Amino acid sequence: MFGLEKRDYTLLIIVACLTMFAPFILNPFPTDSAMAQFNAGYPDLMQRFVIFGIFAIGFNLLFGLTGYLSFGHAAFLGVGSYSAVWMYKLLGYNILPGLFLSVIVSAVFALLIGYISLRRSGIYFSILTLAFAQMMFSIAYSDLIGRFLGTTITNGETGLQVYNSDPQVLHSASKPDIPHLFGQQMQSTYSLDIAGWSFDFNTGYYLCALIMIAAFYIAIRIFRSPFGLMLRAIKTNQTRLNYTGLNTRPYALAVFVISGMYAGLAGGLMACMDPLAGAERMQWTASGEVVLMTILGGAGTLIGPVLGAGFIKYFENIFSKINDSILHQWFAFFPDGIEDAVVFMIHPFIGKGWHLTLGILFMLVVIFLPGGLVEGGQRIGKLLKRGKKSEDKGDGDAASTPAE
């Protein structure tokens, strides 16, 4: 179905079910319980899961298939955000023109940067992409182009946003003054209270989720296509391909542009959720974050980048909110001296120190699961299958052995 093999179709169904039922899956604890701190089913965080999932899926097409490690993909994320906000300023708050422009402009920038960067490989390619991204960050942060043209393009460090004085030629009083899809506001949320649980169903999240499912499906088709096979060959041994007379650069440039379009789409969706674009989305740290997501989940796998994006964004948003007062509530059953000692030991790993916790987890995954979280899931699956086979074999032996 959909031109997919049974294995890929099953994987697509799993991803679709996880995203559609995320408000239930990510809220396992009652709202008033002490463990509600670990719930992640609120709209803002769920939107980040799927948006950065799209970003990581696109990056994985470049890094996972061809082996080209880009440290500048955040540039396309920022370009996508700026493009979407400019469409809000010029036309109106309907998100479709903004998303369309985000993808197109990001593709143009990716074509230009990729054409130059792909003349080198290995670490030299990585440094070139990082250099281009930092140049674009500096231009956006200082609004250099705007100062040269005598007008505002990125609005510098303040960030680009929509004002009442903007043209918005397609906007009318009957339409919302926030991003919407034909009148349906992206921030519109329906809350469902059942017993002690509360579940939020957000319009913006489900739009992003549907787009991520479509992006995941396209990634599967690329992985299984002859084009994807050529990209794998580039990763395996590009020199041998060149010796056969094949010019590999057009294939690498094509996947670089596709990856940049994924990043631009993610940036446009970020502007759909919050109509503001800033230069911080183009910093090298954002580029490094998508690298971590892909490696942590499993580079070169289909679902790995999605898992890595969810893993990192969960720790960033959940563990950064835990503070000493919450820890004291959790360990209040200990005597005062022991309670204070436990809180003192955990304190460096929560709040602003969540990066330390993530770093330790990333180190453990790299050491014990070089294939990322996907490899961990595969190992668990093999253990379960082995245990089931052992039980079946034991039952067979018992059935064939006569009773004494």
Automatic annotation (TrEMBL):
Q: Which top-rank group of organisms is this from?
A: Bacteria
Cell compartment(s), UniProt: Cell membrane
* Statement: the UniProt record of this protein carries the keyword Cell membrane: yes
The cross-references to CDD domains, in alphabetical order and at most eight, read: TM_PBP1_LivM_like
What is the membrane topology listed in the Swiss-Prot or TrEMBL record? Multi-pass membrane protein
List the InterPro entries hit by this protein, alphabetically: ABC_transp_permease, LivM-like
Single GO term (MF): branched-chain amino acid transmembrane transporter activity
Tell me yes or no: is Transmembrane helix among this UniProt entry's keywords: yes
Keywords, ordered alphabetically = Cell membrane, Membrane, Transmembrane, Transmembrane helix
Its Gene Ontology cellular component terms are: plasma membrane
This chain belongs to the protein called Branched-chain amino acid ABC transporter permease
Q: Which organism is it from?
A: Harenicola maris
